[in-house]
Amino acid sequence: MRTVFVLGAGLSHAISDAMPLTDELGNLVRARVPEAAARSPRGFKGGYFEAWLSRLAEAQPDLLDHENATNYGLFLRVLHEIHGIIRERELEVLKGEPSWWLRRLVGLMHAGAADVITFNYDTLIEHTVAHSLLATWPSSSPAEGFQLARGVPPLHAAASRRASGGSFRLLKLHGSLDTFWVPGDSSGATIQRWHLLGGWGNAREAPEEARRRDLPGRSPFIVPPAAAKSSFYNNPVTRELWRSAGEALRGAGRVALIGYSMPPTDLVTSGMLTDALAGRDVAVDVVNPRPEPIVDRLADLGVERGRIKASLVEDFTDELETSAAETVASKLAGTKPDRSLVVATSSVAAARVTGVRRTGDIVRLEIEPVDSLWATTSLDRHRPRTHVTIATLLEDLDPGTRIVVAYSDGSEAAIVSVGEWQRDTGLGSGRWAVLVPSAIPEPVA
Questions:
Q1: pLDDT in tens, 297-334
Q2: What is the CA radius of gyration of the chain?
Q3: Contact at 8 Å (CB) between 166 and 113?
Q4: Strand partners, 389
Q5: Which end of the chain is more exposed for a tag (fewer CB within 10 A), N or C?
Q6: What share of the chain in percent tops pLDDT 70?
Q7: What distance in Å separates the CA atoms of residue 359 and residue 226, rounded to the nearest whole number?
Q8: What is the pLDDT of residues 126-156, one digit of tens each?
Q9: For residue 186, is pLDDT > 60?
Q10: How do the domains of the chain map onto residue ranges?
Q11: How far apart are CA 433 and CA 417, in angstroms?
Q12: SS3 category, 286
């Protein structure tokens, strides 16, 4: 069953409560823009920020031309502040480390080569991919955050590297902190991405002078949280992203709405979800601490309530991991039994399997400390190393059995995929079966 993930502001808020939800974002804008505060004296709640911003974004028939022009000027000022607030909050969050559930969730998206649709401007998912050192086997090179967009929008030439492959596809339908354009450009030619600098534990601000040199005259490309967004959709780049998202949803057997509240004002997304989900045999996960309004909204759109399941993000990650882990035994059954076992997410995050023990329906792997793949599989004449083969593992493996690796820091992750890796010299035959966990801790020296 192919799962498509739909991410909203609630996911970023679950990652860190420093990341604002929509109405909170509006109230932060009010504190910075006196005109916005004067025009919304009671503040924002109940999704009102979207409706308020919609009236500013488009010319209204009850207003004179100069009044509509004044509104649009305020709208542009608000967009500028939205970009600044989200960037400031993201830098604050990146000073820390990603939670274990987030690393596992991203690892599961990666293992399933999923389509991930997001309405979030921040780049926390991209930074988590880079932090988690995720490769696609038999390649052992870690994927990078810039690759997730698959070149749509394109990375600027001055910063360009290979911009495709390696992990899941990330479709950022409302723009991104790292994307810029000439406002109103209907050709889409000026919409380009720039550097993703820093990362978790290394918060870094992109130098504005360098960005303006490489992308002169550009403004942040973020589609506002407003009901009327047509001027931002009138370009081929945005249309391609939305078309790809619609195709992914229509082909999904399971759709997970993680932190997406389905606001009634977002008519474009509601229409896309209705076309993709209503009347289809598709499971829908509502991953949200307050799921009831979202479940009701889905039911109103034609999704059968019996196909909707509500959960919290950590519980959903556990369930998703368990489901992926139950397919591993059958994948290993067709692999050559003499291959030695290594737990790895990439060439720079690996651990050799030194033992196997079964407890109930769980098989736990004993491993050496996390290190590089090359060091893990090398011969050491001064310290003979044992290594476990697939044949040993299969002795304790039944269909549906979960394989779990416990790390020295007390964390655990299930094996969710299987890959292959080989080298000309080293332990065993030089042919290794790679047991890919949903996440692996930091490499150690």
A1: 999 989 999 999 999 999 999 999 999 999 898 888 87
A2: 24
A3: no
A4: 340
A5: C
A6: 93
A7: 53
A8: 999 999 999 888 777 888 887 888 888 888 7
A9: yes
A10: 3-16+94-318, 22-93, 326-437
A11: 11
A12: strand
3-state SS string for 304-333 = CHHHEEEECHHHHHHHHHHHHHCCHHHHHH
Instruction: Out of 2-11, 221-230, 244-253, 338-347, pick the least confident.
Output: 221-230
Q: Which CATH class is domain 3-16+94-318?
A: alpha beta
Reading the block at residue 209, the tokens are 């002078």
Rounded Cα gap, residues 166 and 95, in angstroms:
26
Of 218, 116, 220, nearest in space to 173 by CA = 116
Six-digit token pair at 84? 């600044």
Measure the CA angle with vertex 96, ends 261 and 154; round to 5°. 65
Query: Model confidence over 353-386: pLDDT tens digits?
Result: 889 998 888 999 999 887 788 777 765 544 445 6
- What is the H or E stretch that residue 128 is in? helix 124-132
Torsion (CA) 21, 26, 29, 35 in degrees, nearest 10: 180
Beta strand 169-172 with 192-193 is unpaired
Q: What is the mean pLDDT of residues 117-128?
A: 97
What are the φ/ψ torsions at residue 170 (nearest 5 degrees)? -105, 120
Answer whether 404's CB lies under 8 Å from 363's CB.
yes
SS3 per residue for 62-121: CCCHHHHHHHHHHHHHHHHHHHHHHHHHHHHHCCCCCCHHHHHHHHHHHHCCCEEEECCC
CB neighbours of residue 282 within 10 Å? 20
Task: Write down the pTM of the prediction.
Answer: 0.92
Q: Which two tokens stand for residue 407?
A: 């790390």
Spell out a b/e string for 222-248, using b for 16 or more CB atoms within 10 Å of the CB, else e. bbbbbbbbeebeebebbeebbebbbeb
- Are 181 and 191 in contact, with CB atoms under 8 Å apart? yes
145, 106 contact by CB (below 8 A): no
Which residues face 201 on adjacent strands? none
Band of the pLDDT at 11, cuts 50, 70, 90? Answer: very high
Q: What is the DSSP letter of 136?
A: -
